[in-house]
Give the backbone structure.
Amino acid sequence: MRGSFRARTRLVREGRTVPFSALAGPGEGSESAVDLDRFDDSGAWREPPSPWTTEDPERLAQGAETRSAIEAAIEALPEAQRTVMTLRDIEGLGTDEICNLLGITVTNQRVLLHRARAKVRQALEDRLGGMK
C-alpha cells in the first residue's frame, strides 16, 4: 500500500500522463479503448457511470477474515456447544426443536448456547480485537 502511495505522489509531482492511445499493444488497431459515444463534444459524460459500491477491498477482506474467525471459533467448541449453536444460530431451529432432537432440557440447551456464544465472542475479540 505504501509503495502505491509513493508512486502516485511521484506521478502527480512530476506531472506525467499517458494517453489511452499509448496503451495499445503492438499490432492492435486504432480502436478506442472506450466507446466515444459515451461522451459529448466537450468530453463530458452523456450519462454518468453508476456509482461504485460502498464495499471497498479493505472492508471485504475484513468481512472474509471475520467469517473465517467465526468458523474457526465454532469448530473449536466442544461438540455439544457446537451442535446447539449450529442448530440455533445457523440452522435457525427453535429451542423446543433442538431439545427434542438432542434429548436435552431447555435449561441445558440455554446453558450450552450461552457458553458457545461467549466462547465465539471471546475468540473473535482475541483474534480481531485490533481491527477497526
